Amino acid sequence: MHYAFPPRKTSNPPKPTRTNYLRRTRLQFFAVVALCVCLTLYLVSRLFGSTPTPPPVVVEYLTQAPRGQPNVVIVTPIDPALSPSVKGIVQRNREDYAARHGYKTFFPDPNTYHLSDAPKSWATVPAMRHAMTKFPQTPFFFFLGDHALIMNYDLSVEEHIMEKGRLESIMLTDIPVVPPDSVIKTFAHLKGDRIDFVLAQDKDGLACTSFIIRRGEWAKYFLDAWFDPLYRSYNFQKAERHALEHIVQWHGTILAKLALVPQKIMNSYTEKEASQAMANGEYKDGDFIINLGECDRSPRSCEEEMQPYAEKLPKLER
Fold first, then answer.
1. Domain 72-310 in CATH: superfamily?
2. Cα–Cα 20 to 30 A to 118, which of 11, 110, 243, 253?
3. Do 151 and 289 form a contact (C-beta atoms < 8 A)?
4. Is the bond preceding residue 70 a cis peptide, omega within 30 degrees?
5. Residues 105/95, Cβ–Cβ less than 8 Å
6. What residues form the membrane-spanning segments (predicted)?
7. What is the helix (H) or strand (E) element at residue 197, kind and residue range?
8. Is the dihedral of CA 229, 111, 269, 70 positive or negative?
9. In whole angstroms, what is the distance from residue 309 CA to residue 291 CA?
10. 224-255 confidence digits (pLDDT tens)
């Protein structure tokens, strides 16, 4: 007989046998054991295994600008209160020296920077950041205050100061950062090509009217730290100078990039400033820089004091 529909299956499935039950139990047991073994091996490998060493971070230390770009920019914010004569001497001095070596100059007006109630001398810091923005491929930025003159045009910034071997031969190591008895001292084993900030001392401390910074991420960090609003609002007796001495002594990341050099290398003082000069820090013929210090303090006159030195400068055709 043929049915129109297949016969209906029973709704009562056969009961599992003892053999099927034992087989399923064993499989579950072995699965748990395998999981425990894998977990144990993983934990052991994490605890005692060697972790691959990440590749070292390569930091590029700039020493040479691309072709057609200046290797050094001389930065001098010129105080509008200076006499036209002094302004002219200062600007021509920088331009003549820069032309000799293929450098560029930058003369910002300090009044263009928002300093709030801080002294105008704080313009030093944003002027350097401004220069780095205008010359994005230049390795070295040479700050020189407007009371100083470059006297020896034959000396280049690189060969006279920043070349690796030269810098290692002139940097002052293991000496108090702030003379005469600061407990914080300059590092003794720094490499010249790892230095990003160079300046000299006088008897009062760090002489930040003449210094060199190498472009890089560290330079940005350093200038931002130096220009912190807290330091500008804190009534340091010597404004940005004392703020600099503070951060150099309290921040190892800054001290590790700092080189102090003898004063005659880049910041010799005139006879009128000799009482503040370090040993051999008074200007002598052939020195790179002469600094007139506080020549704008009455009864002194920057114009009268600068003129005799300006007359000794090389006369270059323009």
1. Spore Coat Polysaccharide Biosynthesis Protein SpsA; Chain A (3.90.550.10)
2. 253
3. yes
4. no
5. yes
6. 27-48
7. strand 197-202
8. positive
9. 11
10. 999 999 999 998 999 999 999 999 999 999 99
